[in-house]
Amino acid sequence: MQHQIAQIRTEIEAARLLVYNAARMKEDGLPFVREAAKAKLFASQVATNTTSKCVEWLGGVGFTKEFPVEKYYSDCKIGTIYGTSNIQLNTIAKLIDLELKNKQKKMDYNRELLL
C-alpha cells in the first residue's frame, strides 16, 4: 500500500505543477491554452485515479454516504461521463497539429532562402 500512496502523491504533485505552469504562463502573457488543457486533463485523471484507490482501500464502505470519498468519486467521474476529458484531448490535438504546421511552414521558408 505504501507504493500506491507514493504513486498517488507523485501524481498529485505533477498535476499541481502542470496547473501552476499554465497559471504562470497566463500571468506572463504567454500562450497557455495547450498547457491549461494538459493540466485539466491530467488533473482530472489523477483525481479519478486517486478517488478510485481510496474507494478500494475503504472496501465496501467506500461507496456509502458515511464517507466523503463516495461524493469525491462521483464528482470525478462526471468529467469522464460528460466528455470533458475528450474535449481537452481535442484541444491538445488541434494545438499540436497547428504547431507542427507552423514548424513545417518555417522549414519550407528556410529551405527557399537557401535555394
Automatic annotation (TrEMBL):
PANTHER family found in the cross-reference section: ACYL-COA DEHYDROGENASE, SHORT_BRANCHED CHAIN SPECIFIC ACYL-COA DEHYDROGENASE, MITOCHONDRIAL
Molecular function, one GO term: acyl-CoA dehydrogenase activity
Please give the name of this protein.
Short/branched chain specific acyl-CoA dehydrogenase, mitochondrial
List GO terms (cellular component aspect): mitochondrion
Signal peptide interval: none
| Acyl-CoA dehydrogenase/oxidase C-terminal domain mapped to chain residues | 1-94
* Keywords noted in UniProt: Flavoprotein, Oxidoreductase
Pathway assigned in UniProt: Lipid metabolism
Q: Which Gene3D superfamilies match?
A: Butyryl-CoA Dehydrogenase, subunit A, domain 3
> Which lineage do the record's taxonomy fields give for this organism?
Eukaryota, Metazoa, Ecdysozoa, Nematoda, Chromadorea
This enzyme catalyses: hexanoyl-CoA + oxidized [electron-transfer flavoprotein] + H(+) = (2E)-hexenoyl-CoA + reduced [electron-transfer flavoprotein]; (2R)-2-methylbutanoyl-CoA + oxidized [electron-transfer flavoprotein] + H(+) = ethylacryloyl-CoA + reduced [electron-transfer flavoprotein]; valproyl-CoA + oxidized [electron-transfer flavoprotein] + H(+) = (2E)-2-propylpent-2-enoyl-CoA + reduced [electron-transfer flavoprotein]; butanoyl-CoA + oxidized [electron-transfer flavoprotein] + H(+) = (2E)-butenoyl-CoA + reduced [electron-transfer flavoprotein]
In its keyword annotation, does this UniProt entry include Oxidoreductase? yes
